[in-house]
Design brief:
- By secondary structure, the protein is mainly β.
- It has three domains: about 45-175, Cupredoxins -  blue copper proteins (Immunoglobulin-like); about 190-355, Immunoglobulin-like, CATH 2.60.40; about 370-504, Sandwich (Immunoglobulin-like).
- Strands 15-14-13-17-22-19-20 form a seven-stranded mixed β-sheet, with no helix packed on it.
- Strand 3 and strand 4 (about 55-70) form a beta hairpin.
- The structure holds CU-O-CU linkage (C2O) and copper (II) ion (2 copies).
- One copper (II) ion binds near residues 429, 489 and 497.
Length: about 500
């Protein structure tokens, strides 16, 4: 019974209860986690090698076992490791090739989430890698400095494959980091892959999705950060940067520190914001990344939580979560999209090296210009109820489930378009578009919150919302190799809430 033995009461972990109580959020559900007994695993950096003017990475997708709980070897999958992957350090302007070998017993793919790249290199459902084969996508890194990721995208199997561990983080450098922004990997610049996994008493985490899991998205009973359960991180500097990736299957994390201290958001999915945005709570949906800088006091631990969404709450400035919590009947249970966890603890040393304040400006980020948009398209995300849902066919975009033989949209290269995403249903859906970094124009007619005003490739669309984004595909045209757009709740994606477009 490793699970109960390795747990202590959440309330034993200190000042958290008071702060949460003040918020009215001290739910006993938090008791499920919060022991902070394991140091946070920092994945090794993988820089690849230079060969003939190219940066080359050798990646092997493989089976393994991972010790989430001491003495228990959980069957997992990983990339060059037993669970998840090393952090790939990429450089803008470098032609980069990945030799991706499938050493698994089943077909898989490896998708480059957030990258602008040729369709044949995308690693989506069309670039399948059979067992024993090596796939060699090659493309130039064109993105600004940012936190990206990569993961399996096998058709109908993405959820179980990512659940098992086939995902990892990539960090892009562009040589333009503003002074004062923490950037020393593993010291004050920390990769943080947030997930949750459902462990059984024997320590295994088989992917067994019930009807509820397929609807709400698969969720765990333990938070897993970089493959470590409820870890702590020893901190030696006054300020650290956390590169947060929501790599979960279906959990929307409403993040806050235990004392509700403010932090500064410095980057969204596609890189730095124009200026830091000070916040106390931040929503991160599956597929999204954010980078925050938090200041610490010597000797005073603080932990990072995932909280229940504030009812009618305004952490996106528009009361967007209200709809999620206000639903009636069966669907009000879908607040279960947002599990409550004590994710990790930051443990500052007794004395800390000083860190400068952040600069007032981080990057040049021109305002999006919708005036020149050549086209407008609509994407309606729907969950069919009743018999259709029971038959597993209820997740649609514009009334259709994913069909690999159907191209849903053809977009002209270099033209800006406004895509309008509507969600009339009871659950929030993070809408992701391949091959681009887009800009959010509006949520229900209102301008996006400042922390969402930068480059994005995934946007959470709450029940009842209509979100407009400005998209553009600048670099690669190919009538034959489609890209995907889809809900990044992996169970929804696998059930068909996905479509295809080509760029010509
Ligand atoms: Cu992160 Cu189409 O995926
Ligand atoms: Cu993607
Ligand atoms: Cu969805």
């Amino acid at each position: 019974m490793p699970l109960s033995l390795s747990r202590r009461s959440f309330l034993a972990t200190g000042s958290a209860a008071g702060a949460l109580g003040a918020l009215g959020l001290a739910r006993q559900a938090l008791a499920a986690t919060g022991s902070f007994e394991t140091p946070l695993a920092i994945p090794p950096l993988e820089r690849g090698r230079l060969e003939g003017g190219r940066r080359i990475f050798d990646l092997t997708m493989q089976d393994g076992t991972h010790e989430f709980f001491r003495g228990y070897h959980t069957p997992t999958k990983g990339i060059n490791t037993d669970y998840l992957a090393p952090v790939l350090r990429l450089t803008r302007g470098e032609m980069t090739r990945f030799n991706v070998t499938n050493a698994l017993g089943h077909t898989t793919t490896l998708h480059w989430h957030g990258f602008n790249l040729p369709g044949i290199a995308d690693g989506g459902p069309h670039q399948q890698i059979a067992p024993g084969e090596t796939w060699q996508p090659e493309f130039e890194i064109v993105e600004a400095a940012s936190t990206m990721w990569f993961h399996s995208h096998q058709i109908h199997e993405t959820a179980p494959q990512v659940w098992a561990g086939l995902a990892g983080m990539a960090i892009i450098d562009d040589g333009e980091s503003p002074p004062g922004l923490p950037g020393e990997y593993g010291i004050d610049d920390i990769p943080v892959v947030l997930q949750d996994r459902r462990f059984q008493l024997n320590g295994t985490m088989p992917y067994r999705a019930t009807m509820h899991d397929r609807m709400a998205g698969m969720q765990g009973n333990y938070p897993v950060v970089n493959g470590t359960i409820s870890p702590y991180l020893e901190v030696s500097r006054e300020a650290i940067r956390l590169r947060l990736l929501n790599g979960s299957n279906g959990s929307i994390y409403h993040l806050a520190f235990s004392d509700l201290r403010p932090f500064q958001v410095v980057a969204s999915d596609g890189g730095l914001l124009a200026a830091p945005v000070t916040m106390k709570r931040l929503t991160l949906a599956p597929g999204e990344r954010t980078e925050i800088v938090v200041r610490l006091k010597a000797g005073e631990p603080v932990s990072l939580y995932a909280l229940a969404p504030a009812a009618g709450g305004g952490n996106r400035g528009g009361g967007m979560m209200g709809g999620m919590m206000g639903g009636g009947g069966m669907m009000s249970e879908m607040g279960a999209q947002s599990p409550e966890f004590a994710l990790m603890e930051l443990r500052p040393a007794a004395t800390l090296e000083p860190a400068p304040a952040l600069p007032e400006r981080l990057a040049d980020l021109p305002a999006p210009d919708p005036a020149g948009a050549a086209n407008r398209r609509q994407f309606l995300l729907e969950m069919g109820m009743g018999p259709r849902m029971m038959a597993g066919g209820g997740f649609t975009i514009n009334g259709e489930t994913m069909d690999m033989n159907r191209i849903d949209h053809v977009v002209k290269m270099g033209e800006s378009e406004i895509w309008e995403i509507g969600n009339p249903g009871p659950m929030a859906h993070p809408f992701h578009v391949h091959n681009t970094q887009f800009r959010i124009l509006s949520r229900n007619g209102r301008a996006p919150a400042p922390h969402e005003a930068g480059r994005k490739d995934t946007v959470l669309v709450a029940p009842g919302e209509r979100v407009e984004i400005l998209v553009r595909f600048d670099r690669y045209a190919d009538p034959d190799a489609p890209y995907m757009y889809h809900c990044h709740i992996l169970e929804h994606e696998d059930a068909g809430m996905m479509g295809q477009f080509t760029v010509v």
